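Treating backbone geometry as a discrete language has practical consequences that deserve illustration. Part of our work consisted of pairing the sequence of a single chain with a tokenised description of its backbone. We regard such an encoding as a compact summary of how the chain folds. The amino acid sequence and the backbone structure tokens for this protein are reproduced below.
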Amino acid sequence: MHIMAFSDLHMAANRAETLVEASTEADLVIGAGDFCNMREGLDEAMEMLQGIMAPMIVVPGNAESAKELRAMARPNMTVLHGESTEHDGLCILGLGYGVPTTPFGPWSCDLSEDEAASMLAPFEMADLLVTHSPPRGVADITSGGQSVGSVAIHDAILRIGPKLVLCGHIHDSWGKSGTIGDASVHNLGPTPNWFEL
């Protein structure tokens, strides 16, 4: 399966245009959260992506809630937040929001490490894990050199054993990748990223 994936669109019209154009080659499109800014403009962001005809699997970032994303999702979008779905024989698990809790204040949709661990606990396997936040220790370094990824997501990767993990959230680590166990982990950013599964 030819997968195109991105994160952190943040309502950038030029980025959306590039994603729409590239998506014609995709069997599946993954959006790893933060479509809008500070809970504003999600309807506009979804409109920017309306040219994507391929099936989409999306998770909410910390800039939009799961409820808001479900309400605004395009007909070809499946929203996952502590849920899994099957697509062409692949088991895909998704978890949105900022993990651990961000310092951004009340507008930010966040989970504590314990909350994230509880939401991931029921799942025993997945081929693909889509999270907004990166796991601790991979593609999670800020401009100040801090590792700010999620321990709960890191631990879930080791337990669940996905082949591929796609995330975003930490802008300074867009384009960075690494491995946890047998899983290949990628912090996407708002450009087309291509994967085969």
Q: What stands out?
A: The chain has a mean pLDDT of 98. Residues 2-196 form a domain with the Purple Acid Phosphatase; chain A, domain 2 fold (CATH 3.60.21.10). The helical segments are 13-22, 42-48, 66-72, 113-120, 151-160.
